[in-house]
Amino acid sequence: MSSRRTTTIAGSLVTASFSVVMILSGTAGADDQGPGSSKGGKAVDEAAAGVKLTTLLPEKISVDNSSKKTDITATVKNEGSKESGKIQLLVVGFDGLTVKNVQGCSPIAEKNLPEGSNSGFSCPIDNLAAGASKSYAVDATFDLKKTGKICLPVQSDGGKKTFWQQGPVPFGTTNPSPNAPATPLLLGTDNHPVAPNGDELPRTGPGVLPLGAAGAALLTAGAAGLWWSQRRPRQRES
Description:
By secondary structure, the chain is mainly beta. About 5% of the residues lie in helices and about 35% in strands.
């Protein structure tokens, strides 16, 4: 990716509340992430006729309480009747969720990351046939003392248009298990960190707001609803 290239991500406009998901006893592993979900996703710029791009994230992931490592499967899908042509999927981390690697993808330079994000990868796709999907293995860490979010925008090859964006959507739990080997987290749930002695830790980041309020806080002025329309290179202080 060119160092002068900027990344465009549309703001989350999702205000729907999330239903409670019951977790069975035991730890959810990388191979037990549940069904894929487009929760927190929204179409933004109009794609070509016959092309309908969406993304999927697992309903649940598991974070190792010792290493903070977690595995996430990110999927982009063309639900339309025509092939997509060249597109790119971005995988971007926020707050306590840091994306360490995405198989087959390139890291986004720090100065080109969306405002508020801590990490990101760009995954170029030459073409996605009608009805086809492509999945990526995402290696990440999650600081369970913080809230954590992930964002999956699907863009045109040059990044000028965002056809679909899922997130920034949180993973978290309202029932932490600090003394267990791992903590299962649910998609669409703000993380509620708790210390090993049961005392609640200070919550950080925009995740302290309800999802609707957090989404509204990310929006900038203007009817277009872009919370970050064009990333400017960071200025170095003299």
